[in-house]
């Protein structure tokens, strides 16, 4: 399967993901948060944690999730509506989806994701057939974004360049992708999530997710589209 990467725009006023992240960090200039909140930068202890803890338990992640408080339900509902209104129209077949998007941050000098991988590999264990999406919270470009090959095994890696108000669909299930060290002067923030067409769903046969240990089943990693 080829990558078939497709970039689309979304309404930032209707889906104000950016505003919610800004409020969570009390920071309007998210791409400069590494200068504004230097005390939150990962230290040697965090970076030395075993994968995937070294990329999912930074102070930035803890701050984001703990700061949602009363807006957690709002963000969750907004995400559900985004999937219903935007994603359902492009997938165009029955599917289930990741129940809450993954928050990513890549500050200068570091990576957001440390392993080059495809999601269905032995480390990540995602079921075959998933479709990947990324929502840009800040500008994503050059070495502060994801690099991905155009076809599995081709290794012709190119960056997924996005601006706030855009999201991209791509085949991260079979195409290898990863991060380079962020040599820009800008932090990247984004949400990513996956959907699984129901024709590929085989409950009882899937393994646990690498990061949260959830079963790749409805009620675990996935939820149904209402």
Q: Averaged pLDDT, please? A: 91
Largest sheet: 7 strands, antiparallel
Question: What Rg do the Cα atoms give?
Answer: 17 Å
Number of strands: 10
- Uncertain regions spanning at least 5 consecutive residues: none
The coarse overall form would be: globular
Helix fraction? 10-25%
Secondary-structure-derived class: alpha+beta
Order of helices and strands: EHHHHHHEEEEEEEEE
Number of helical segments with 4 or more residues: 6
Question: Any chance you could write out the topology, listing elements then pairs?
Answer:
Layout lengths: L5 E4 L7 H9 L7 H4 L7 H4 L5 H4 L2 H9 L4 H20 L3 E4 L3 E5 L24 E6 L9 E3 L9 E2 L6 E5 L6 E3 L8 E10 L24 E3 L2
Antiparallel strand pairs: 1-7, 2-9, 2-10, 3-9, 4-7, 4-9, 5-6, 5-8
Task: Report on this structure.
This protein is α+β, with helices and mostly antiparallel strands. The protein is built from 6 helices and 10 strands, in the order βααααααβββββββββ. It has helices spanning 17-25, 33-36, 44-47, 53-56, 59-67, 72-91, and strands spanning 6-9, 95-98, 102-106, 131-136, 146-148, 158-159, 166-170, 177-179, 188-197, 222-224. The strands form 2 sheets. Strands 1, 2, 3, 4, 7, 9 and 10 form a 7-stranded antiparallel sheet that branches. The two termini are 29 Å apart.
Characteristic key phrases:
226 residues, alpha+beta, seven-stranded antiparallel sheet, 6 helices, 22% helix, globular
Quick take:
The chain has 226 residues and is α+β, with helices and mostly antiparallel strands. It contains 6 helices and 10 strands. Helix 1 crosses helix 5.
């Amino acid at each position: 399967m080829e990558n078939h990467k497709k970039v689309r725009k979304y309404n930032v006023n209707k889906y104000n993901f950016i505003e919610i992240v800004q409020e969570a960090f009390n920071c309007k200039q998210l791409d400069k948060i590494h200068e504004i909140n230097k005390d939150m930068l990962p230290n040697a202890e965090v970076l030395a944690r075993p994968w995937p803890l070294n990329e999912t338990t930074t102070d930035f992640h803890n701050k984001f999730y703990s700061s949602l408080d009363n807006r957690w339900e709002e963000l969750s509902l907004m995400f559900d509506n985004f999937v219903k209104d935007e994603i359902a129209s492009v997938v165009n077949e029955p599917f289930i989806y990741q129940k809450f998007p993954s928050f990513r941050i890549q500050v200068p000098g570091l990576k957001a994701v440390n392993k080059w991988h495809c999601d269905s590999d032995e480390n990540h264990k995602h079921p075959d057939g998933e479709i990947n999406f990324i929502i840009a919270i800040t500008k994503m470009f050059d070495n502060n974004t994801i690099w991905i090959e155009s076809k599995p095994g081709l290794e012709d890696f190119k960056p997924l360049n996005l601006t706030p108000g855009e999201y991209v669909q791509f085949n991260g299930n079979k195409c290898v992708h990863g991060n380079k060290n962020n040599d820009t002067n800008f932090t990247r923030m984004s949400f990513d999530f996956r959907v699984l067409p129901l024709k590929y769903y085989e409950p009882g046969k899937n393994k646990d997710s690498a990061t949260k240990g959830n079963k790749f089943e409805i009620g675990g990693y996935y939820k149904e589209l209402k």
